[in-house]
Structure formats: C-alpha cells, structure tokens
Amino acid sequence: MGLGDKIKHVAEKASGKTKEAAGDATDNDKLKAEGKGEQLKAEMKQAADKVKDTFKKH
Fold this sequence. Notes:
It is a single chain. This protein is mainly α. It has helices at residues 3-25, 29-57. The radius of gyration is 14 Å and the shape is elongated.
C-alpha cells in the first residue's frame, strides 16, 4: 500500500470526525451518523493496509 493511500485514509478518518463533531454541535443525527460511518470505513481501510504491509514483509 502506498504512502498516498495511507494519507488519504487518515484524511478520511479526520473528515469523519469533523462531520461527527458538526452533527453533534448542531444536534443533527444524520450528520453524526455519516461522520461515524466515514470513520469506520477509514479504519477498515487502515486495517487492510496493515494486513497488506504485514504480508509484504514476509
């Protein structure tokens, strides 16, 4: 997995956190849920990156 993809996944997670915080501040449950979903999606991608990196080392 390239460094660019890893950076992109971290940015996606940060974007999700921002959306969740905005939804919390405005009492918008839909926006909070979108933010949490984006964070989860980014975390899954990061986990996949780690697995790929592990197999590349062996």
